[in-house]
Specification:
By secondary structure, this protein is an alpha/beta fold. It folds into two domains: 176 residues, 3-Layer(aba) Sandwich (Rossmann fold), CATH 3.40.50; 126 residues, Rossmann fold (3-Layer(aba) Sandwich), CATH 3.40.50.1980. Helices cover 43% and strands 13% of the residues. Helix 4 links the parallel strand 3 and strand 4. It is globular. It starts with a helix and ends with a helix. The relative contact order is 0.12. About 5% of the residues have low confidence.
């Protein structure tokens, strides 16, 4: 039997036999904090801010982990089993965990951050028309995520609604200022030079929000390998438009970017293609590092982009 399905079956049995709380009943917390499991570091940071003082948050995936290809482990079952509430991104970001979320939702609160958005908020990948899960790169959408998380925490723990409302108000100011900061930094780069080439198509929401043309070696999902035709097409685009910098990503291998560099050199030996730096895409930086929070990660990314692309 496939290991993944063993996990799902095991979780089903645990949830049926070992958990009394259902989404149709109130969660009896007493005076204790809410145990929350988040899939990604971005979501864990959001919940820590929205639920400050009332939540204990554990992230399944740590820094540098690619959620697209993340394989659930046995330890994830026990974490999900012990949680009061589970938050995940949705829009197929955690594609290999869909069955686990479905099983968990039968006996506990399970919420997808993307459910806080409306259809018109969701970007579609141009080539495939598939919905793009990288919603956190538009700070305005992450504000909607904050509102969604706050509402759900109040739903789970209504007697402490005043705490969640205060947390939301405080963090909202931070996110609004962050959005303005990214806009101001982006304006340092002439519009014609706002071309962002990355390892995969993770920055589409960022591009739409802040006026960048974004090209990825791979599509929105890193599971699908980039082929030589896609790499050649992007290399040709960069040589033709004199786009000399590409950006590596903390959670994506660099092999495709090295191939991109090689192909560009073949097309024009005089064209020097180099890295503009490392961006954090599908995970925050290490804990206690400048990019270890959502705010820090966003600032790191835009400052790295400006340093590489501004005149």
């Amino acid at each position: 039997m496939n290991f993944f399905y063993k996990i799902v079956i095991g979780l089903s049995l645990v949830l049926v036999t070992g958990c009394k709380q259902t989404t149709n009943n109130k969660l009896y917390l007493g005076n204790r904090q809410i145990k929350v499991v988040a899939t990604t570091t971005m979501i864990a940071d959001l919940i820590n801010n929205a639920g400050k003082g009332r939540v204990l948050v554990e992230s399944l995936m740590g820094p540098g982990i690619d959620p697209h290809s993340y394989e659930p482990r046995e330890s994830d079952v026990s974490r999900l089993m012990g949680a009061d509430v589970v938050f995940y991104n949705g829009i197929h970001l955690e594609g290999k965990m869909a069955d686990l979320f479905e099983e968990s939702s039968k006996k506990k609160y399970v919420f997808a951050i993307a459910d806080g958005l409306v259809p018109s908020d969701i970007r579609k990948e141009p080539q495939t028309n598939a919905p793009d899960p990288h919603i956190w790169f538009d700070v305005q959408l992450w504000i909607k995520g904050l509102e969604f998380v706050s509402a759900k925490l109040i739903e789970v723990d209504p007697k402490n609604s005043s705490i969640y409302n205060a947390n939301k108000s405080n963090y909202l100011v931070t996110l609004q200022e962050l959005h303005q900061y990214v806009k101001q930094q982006s304006e340092k780069i002439p519009i014609a030079q706002r071309v962002l080439v990355t390892a995969h198509d993770a920055f589409g929401y960022f591009g739409n929000a802040y006026g960048f043309q974004v090209r990825g070696v791979q599509g929105i999902n890193t599971v699908a390998e980039a082929n030589s035709g896609e790499i050649g097409s992007l290399a040709s685009f960069m040589v033709k438009n004199k786009v000399r910098a590409f950006f590596v990503e903390s959670s994506v291998p660099r092999k495709n970017l090295e191939k991109l560099k090689e192909v560009a050199a073949l097309l024009d030996p005089k064209f020097i293609l180099s890295t503009g730096g490392e961006l954090y895409s599908d995970a925050l930086g290490p804990k206690n590092s400048p990019a270890g929070t959502y705010e820090g990660m966003v600032k790191h990314n835009i400052e790295t982009i400006v340093k590489a692309l501004a005149p």
